[in-house]
Amino acid sequence: LVDTAKKEIDNAEDLQQLNLIRVKYLGKKGLITSQMKKLKDLSQQERPKFGAVVNKAKSEVEDYLNNRMNELYRIEKQKKYEKLRVDVTLSGARKDRGHLHILTKIQKELEDIFISMGFEVVEGPEVEDTWHNFDALNTPEWHPARDVQDSFYFTDKILLRTHTSPVQVRTMLERKPPLAIISPGRVFRRDYDSTHLPMFTQMEVLYVDKNVTVKHLKYTLEEMARKVFGDSAKVRLKPSFFPFTEPSYEVDILFNGKWLEILGAGMVDPNVFKNVGYDPNEWSGFAFGLGLERIAMVKYGIRDIRDFIKNDVRFLENY
Ligand code: FA5
Fold it and tell me: Which residues are Mg(2+)-binding (predicted)?
């Protein structure tokens, strides 16, 4: 009986089957348990002997069962974990990853360059009033830049800013000199061709301190050009005119053997200082406004400025 029990126990495939075997042999009416009922038919002398044999069989089968139970338990647990296991060496399904837009990258690059020179990033509103956008910047009513042909007006006093220069005004009104700020952002003009967009990105740079000269301006521009375009890049200032700077310059950068105009610059006009309550006899400064699309075009050889806003992935993936 013990041997057949053991065989059955060996063949049990899971804990459920094993439990049925336990009932079959060791349950209240089990095959081994019920052997004890034979005791009453035996003689006084035979009873202890027979009892001992049955008890031994019982504990033998019990031990055997328990061993098999532990074994099956281990195997089932193993199977469960096997199912959950992840093969970390399998190669994953490749996902297309996005990246920053070329303009965002250029903006961050320029921000880092100026931050490393001690400039601070400030922001201004895209919807401006004519005072901040023009008057405070010494641009009188009759100036052609104010023309409705060139600017997007909401009312006669409110418009989409045409450049980032009003942020100069807002910052100087809020703070006392000296100051060194940059201000990147969107600006809007009625322009549209392969080198002009109606919405484009400028970055204003303003430095105000005592005894600031054109040399400081030129050094800052050269430093910027070297960092953006490499050590061989050269900077050239050409006389120009802006109402809010005196003298004013158009700035060319030599890159890949070509001189390219990418920004307007100059020494802050004394009238602008007066308009924000700075004493022009005490304070001086330089300012410039970069076109970020133009910088990216020069750096990466992009021919048509309209590619920036088409959102064509085939273009964007190149940068
Ligand atoms: C200005 O906007 C002046 N506020 C810059 C300035 C600031 C001068 C501080 C002095 C002191 P301008 O209109 O030249 O200047 O524009 C500056 C740059 O913006 C240009 O050199 C060019 O790179 C870019 N730009 C101008 N118009 C467009 C346009 N429609 N699309 C793309 N880029 C443009």
Answer: 246
